[in-house]
Amino acid sequence: MKREDLDVYLLIAALMILLFYKNYGNILKILMNLSIYLVMILAAASFIILIKMRRLLPRRGPLVVPARLSVYDKDANINLNKLKDIAEGMGLRIIFLISIGRSGLMGRSPGKVAYKVLLLGKDREMIRAGASAINSTSEGFKIELMERNLNPDLAQEIIEICDESEVASIGVGRNPERDEPLLELGERKGRVIGIPVGELTKHILVIGQTGSGKTTTVKRIIYEAWNLGIPSLVLDSHWEYRNLIFGMGGRIFCSRAGYPQICINPLISIPKGEKEIFLVAETLSSLLDLTPSQFYLLLKALRRLSDISSEKNPPNMYDLLMEIKGFSTSSQPEEESRASLVRKLEPLVSGDGEAIFKCDNILSTGFEEVPTLLELGDVESDLQKRLIAFFTLKRIKDYYIREEAKSRYPKLIVVLEEAEKLIPYYKDQIGMELISRLFAELRKFGVALVLVSQSLSEIPEGAVRNTGIKIIHKVESPSDLKFLRTFMREKNIVDKILTLAPGECIMNFPGGVESLQVRSVDELPLSRESVDEVIMMNSFYWISR
């Protein structure tokens, strides 16, 4: 409000008061009432001024929590640069109150020694999450938060004294002379039971009815693998892995506006030629249940798009739909096939589908470096989910094939929750060979699959037979039990499956059969609001398309 306007309003108010009191002739009373109104106006103005001044004052600094970095393994190697990156990725800052020399931490050999660190963040809940993420990155050390918070002024003085450039880049890894690491799942009668790391690339199937503990088992696999330096990529539709991935310092993507999103273009590789064209055509034909005439039109459209595009400027699903819509047909049956194919394709690119399948940034998510979660709960249809899952696996396979480094040990674990909704069903032998070949190539180049499902009989048989390790929780479905009897080594084990308690399972793997109780992962009880704030505001989570 301008000052001149305020003067006019005050004059009008004064005139109104004078008119109101004109019959009383009590000038003193009028003056007293005027003074009351003036005091009220000044009080309101002071309140507004105080609010504005408060906004101009510097905000309170971050919470500073002292912590202890305890090294309890004499063979532990700690990459402090990596720990710093993880903390920063979660919106925290970590200060190491130690001096780093060439001969080791403080010139001493690590082993049962504690060092002081400071963790700075928005609140203690987020700092706890950061400490948990750091602890899950390696073995042989642990960051323990102290109960008290540090005085901000004292903390600032310490930070100013510290030289943050004194951070070591010490290699992380196990001693090659040790035995093959074991991915520990649980125990039985005091004996630790797990999966040898070299066996993971044979792929894992985890099945069990609701409440049987299969998600607990998968979380243990993800957590233990990350302890060994192996990241996981999780495709989940029920928001069950959010706190785990976040607490491990991972990234989270979804399909909601305002959040980091991923997109996958199934047609990105068709400019390479006929082999890629046929794979896309066969996959879409299976998903959409196409007739032979519809398959022919689809193949024709894909070949046309391949001819007019390039690897630098590939077509997408919307281009495919427009190409088919633009076809001129020579007969009524052909026109009916074209119209039916359009109706089947349109749901894939409608709504969020257009954005999901328009571009391709899956290889920019950092899945090969940190645990990554693709939340598919907001994806509209199971068809879209299957398309995302299949071509995400294909893009990952292509990525590792380019490295031309075959590996017996896993470089990545891919978890498919509700696998029966994510793996396409193929109607013919050619299609089943495609999925078998994909699984085999992922295995060859160091990608381990974990298929999770409530119902064994709903997963394509080819996918089931391509999993070398099967972890079975309680199952009561007659069709599932019948299927289990076809591949279980010990037939009487199937009867025991009916009596398993929550968390108990039977693991069938090349080395034999084991019964065990899976240890649950101690997840931090983070609020969804806190996680969302970090995801939306921190550039660590965002990728360019």
Automatic annotation (TrEMBL):
A Pfam family reported for this protein in Swiss-Prot or TrEMBL: DUF87
Keywords noted in UniProt: Membrane, Transmembrane, Transmembrane helix
Entry keyword Lipid metabolism: no
InterPro entries from the UniProt entry: HerA_central (IPR002789), P-loop_NTPase (IPR027417), T4SS_component (IPR051162)
Residue ranges of domain Helicase HerA central in the record: 199-355
Chain segments annotated as transmembrane: 7-24, 30-51
Domain of life: Archaea
Protein name per UniProt: ATPase-like protein
UniProt organism field: Korarchaeum cryptofilum (strain OPF8)
Taxonomy of the source species: Archaea, Thermoproteota, Candidatus Korarchaeia, Candidatus Korarchaeales, Candidatus Korarchaeaceae
